[in-house]
Amino acid sequence: MSTQLSSVEVKRITTHIIQEMKHRGEKISALTAYDYSMARIVDAAGIDIILVGDSASNVIAGHETTLPITLDQMIYHAQAVVRAVKRAFVVVDLPFGSYQGNSRAALDSAIRIMKESGAHAVKVEGGIEIKDSITRILSAGVPVMGHLGLTPQSIYKFGTYTVRAKEEAEAEKLLQDAQMLDEIGCFGMVLEKIPASLTQKVSQSVSIPTIGIGAGPHADGQILVLHDLLGITKEFKPRFLRRYADLHGIMTDAVQNYVKDVKSNDFPNEKESY
């Protein structure tokens, strides 16, 4: 009976709820997740949005960039996350090459993610240059989250992961792109690695929530990569990252102790044997 009651009490986060959070000034919490076990913990801890990010290409598969991950691989990760989630709103990145330059391909990619994973929305990187793709996806009733500023799928174009939109021309284009995403019907957008003052300007000029990463405190919410927040990744140390744990150290100690106990024949002991 208690299990049934708890499942009834869980209120699923929706685009409408996310919109309401912006209007009443409640900050939106978001994190990435890529597998069932981690997503289950993150969801139960009360996160609002889980992004099945193409950052899986980096932290799960070990690639240098997000470009190599495929649509099939994104669907695989999304399926695992969706199975775990009872409350959070699940957004899935459309990977590089699955939506740019071809609105029909973009729609097909989005539909595959929604049908095969059960996710709630997709995320795309870019502004006016991908307007047709976003519009076509939205026309099918698929919620879309935008992503402006530093867009990792365009890393070879930028040539660096430094802060974007510090110059007036780029800042103005970003503001125009943000307003366009709002006008055509996106439910929200990620702003990555841009000046805090620009984030504030964008957030005040659009009706949809902004989710910042390395974009200062004025966004309507914040997102980090889960493996960075937990201290599993050690080499990545950007200014905007706050580590909330040192799981790299904890996990290393645990494995080393296990190795020691096996080598000394301390594990398994009598109580751990049948």
TrEMBL record:
Its cofactor is Mg(2+). It is an enzyme of class 2 (transferase). Coiled coil: none annotated. It catalyses: (6R)-5,10-methylene-5,6,7,8-tetrahydrofolate + 3-methyl-2-oxobutanoate + H2O = 2-dehydropantoate + (6S)-5,6,7,8-tetrahydrofolate. Mg(2+) binds at residues 54, 93, 125. SUPFAM superfamilies: Phosphoenolpyruvate/pyruvate domain (SSF51621). Gene3D superfamilies: Phosphoenolpyruvate-binding domains. 3-methyl-2-oxobutanoate binds at residues 54-55, 93, 123. It is found in: Cytoplasm. GO terms for cellular component: cytoplasm. GO terms for biological process: methylation; pantothenate biosynthetic process. Pathway: Cofactor biosynthesis; (R)-pantothenate biosynthesis; (R)-pantoate from 3-methyl-2-oxobutanoate: step 1/2. GO terms for molecular function: 3-methyl-2-oxobutanoate hydroxymethyltransferase activity; magnesium ion binding; methyltransferase activity. The keyword Metal-binding applies. PANTHER family: 3-METHYL-2-OXOBUTANOATE HYDROXYMETHYLTRANSFERASE. Homodecamer; pentamer of dimers. Catalyzes the reversible reaction in which hydroxymethyl group from 5,10-methylenetetrahydrofolate is transferred onto alpha-ketoisovalerate to form ketopantoate. Belongs to the PanB family. This is 3-methyl-2-oxobutanoate hydroxymethyltransferase. It comes from Runella defluvii.
